[in-house]
TrEMBL record:
Keywords: Membrane, Transmembrane, Transmembrane helix. GO terms for biological process: carotenoid metabolic process. The keyword Transmembrane helix applies. The keyword Membrane applies. This is FAD-dependent oxidoreductase 2 FAD binding domain-containing protein. The chain crosses the membrane at residues 6-24. Pfam families: NAD_binding_8.
Length: 135
């Protein structure tokens, strides 16, 4: 039975990053995953001709100095990952409405105010919180 310095249980993004950082520091890691594929929620699967995201479909923190950007640099793989900015971020289609989420939060707010004028106070508070998270 080989010796390991650390056993990381679960190969979601958290486990992969933890294991990667520990390996980059010279530690011997055993990464254990119960599923067939690694990635946890950050993975995809195929049905017929379509590829579906299991959960994660957009990231923040990929800009220079952002959290993800810093982690990729730390792991020495930043040059191998190319992020594509998408706009709109998401289109949700419901029976009686289509909600388009623009990447520019101000544009998104304006459209939301027009689409849901009765949501005034609630919508404003929501965007105040978002701004506090972003800036
Ligand atoms: C519907 C949805 C949409 C989301 N969209 C986004 C998004 O757009 N952007 C974003 O940044 N975040 C998004 N998130 C959040 C993001 O998915 C999670 O924050 C992140 O993937 C969690 O990673 P994790 O490593 O902590 O856990 P997980 O991804 O859950 O990974 C845990 C891993 O551990 C394994 N495991 C569990 N128990 C054991 C065991 N006993 N032995 C071995 N292996 C085990 C699991 O199989 C899994 O692979 C979304 C989440 C959901 C549910």
């Amino acid at each position: 039975m080989p010796d390991y310095d650390v056993i990381v249980i679960g190969s979601g993004i958290g486990g992969l990053i933890s294991a990667g950082i520990l390996v980059s520091r010279g530690l011997k890691i055993l990464l254990v995953e119960k599923n067939v594929n690694p990635g946890g929620y950050l993975s995809s699967f195929k049905r017929g001709a379509f590829i579906f995201d299991s959960a994660v479909d957009c990231f923040s923190g990929v800009e220079n100095g952002g959290l993800i950007s810093n982690v990729l640099k730390l792991l020495g793989v930043d040059s191998q990952v190319h992020f594509v900015r998408v706009d709109p971020i998401r289109v949700s289609i419901f029976p009686d409405a289509t909600i388009i989420v623009d990447s520019d939060v101000n544009v998104y707010k304006k459209k939301t105010d027009v689409a849901f004028p009765f949501r005034g106070r609630c919508s404003c508070r929501f965007f105040q919180i978002i701004r506090r998270c972003i800036y």
